Amino acid sequence: MSEKKEIVLSGIRSTGNLHLGNYFGALRKFVAIQDNYDCNFFVADLHALTTSPDPEALHANVKNIIAEYLAAGLDPEKSTIFIQSDVPEISEMYLLLNMHVGIGELMRTASFKDKARKALGLGSAADNESEEAFEKEIIGAETNKRVNAGLLTYPTLMAVDILIQKATKVPVGKDQLQHLELTRRFARRFNNFYGVDLFPEPTDFDFGGAPVKVPGLDGSGKMGKSEGNCIYLIDEPKALRKKVMRAVTDEGPQAPDSPMSEPVANLFSLLELTSAPEVVESFRKSYADCSIRYGDLKKQLAEDILAITTPIRERVADILADDAYIANVVRRGAEKARERAAATLSEMRHIMGIRKF
Ligand code: TYM
Question: Is 170 in the pocket of ligand 1 (CB under 6 A)?
Answer without folding.
Answer: yes
